[in-house]
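HOLO CASE FILE
Compound: acetoacetyl-coenzyme A
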Amino acid sequence: MEIAKVGVLGCGLMGHGITQICAQAGWDVVVREVDQEKLDKGIGKIEKQLARAVEKGKLDHNDADAIRGRITPTLDYADLSDCDLVIEAITEDLDGKLAMWREVDPIVKPDAYFATNTSSLAVADQAAVTGRPERFLGLHFFNPAQVMPLLEVVRADETADETAELGLAVGAELGKTTVAARDNRGFIVNRLLVPYMLDAMRAYEQGVGSVEDIDTGMMAGASHPMGPLTLADFVGLDTLASIADVMVDAYGEERFSQPETLRRLVEAGDYGRKSGRGFYDYSGETPVAVDPAR
Ligand code: CAA
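Model generated. C-alpha cells follow.
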C-alpha cells in the first residue's frame, strides 16, 4: 500500500520530530495531542526548526511553508480516520497506550498500519488490543528524530511480512538507517544504552566523578557526542525511569534498576531538559551541572 497520509499520536519530544520528518518526506500528517497547549508547543518546535533550516540556507522558504502546510494539528482522533499509517509517540505507559489504541482502532480505516514508537514496552501487547495485530509493528525513532539516522523496525509475533517490509520502506523514505530488532524489552539500542546511563548515575553516586567530569570523560575519552548524564536529561528522566522499570521487570537484573538519584529527581519533577532541570539546570544560556545527590 502506498503511504499518503500519516497520523502521529503525541506531539511531544518524539512526536513533533516524527511529524516533521514525515511531512518533510512529502506525506500529509495529522498530529493529535490531548490538549491545545501541548499541541501548540509541539507545533511551535516544528516551526522553529523549519525557520532555523531556512535561516541556515538548508531549506527554501517555500519548501518550509509546504512542509508546515502538510501538517494538520488536531485534538480529535476522528481526524485520523483516513490515515494509511498511524505512529504513536505518547507517554511511555502501557495502560495509557492500550486505552489509546482501543479508541483509535475502530476509527481508522481497517487497511491502515499501526506502529508504536515505544522505547521499551512489548509491541505485541499493544498489537493485541487492536483488531489488526498483523498490521502492527514497532518503529522506534531516536531523539532528535530529525537528526538521528537510526530507525529500529520491530516485528512482533503476529506482524505480517508485508508490514515488516512496510516498516523498512518507511525508514528508507525518511532517509533513515534501519535495523530489524526482536520484540524484546529495549530492542537493540536501549538494551545497551539504558544500563550505560543508569551506571553513570551509580558512578556519580559512588563519587567516581562529578556530573561534569563523568560527561566530559565519555565525550573526550570515548568520542560520544554527549556524556551519559547529559544524554539522560536529553532523553527525559521520567521516560528513562519508566524504561528502567520495564527492563528490570523483564530481565530481573539489578543493572536495569533505577538508581536513587534518578528516583529522587523524577519525584521532584526534575525530568531533565524538558522540565528545565535534571542533572543540569537549563534556565540560563548554557546548562550548569547541579549536584542532585546532595
Ligand atoms: N531538532 C532538530 N534538529 C536538531 C535538534 C533538534 N532537537 N538538535 C540539533 N539539531 C540539529 C541542528 O540544527 C544541527 O543541524 P545542522 O548540522 O543542519 O546545522 C545539527 O543537529 C547539530 O546540532 P548542534 O550543532 O546544535 O549540536 P551537536 O553537534 O551537539 O548535535 C545532537 C546535537 C545531534 C543532539 C548531538 O549532541 C547528539 O547526537 N547527541 C546524542 C543524541 C543521542 O544519543 N540520541 C539518542 C537518545 S536515546 C533515544 O532516543 C532512544 C530512546 O528510546 C530513549
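CASE NOTES: The longest helix spans residues 36-55. The CA atoms of residues 81 and 108 lie 4 Å apart.
CLOSED: yes
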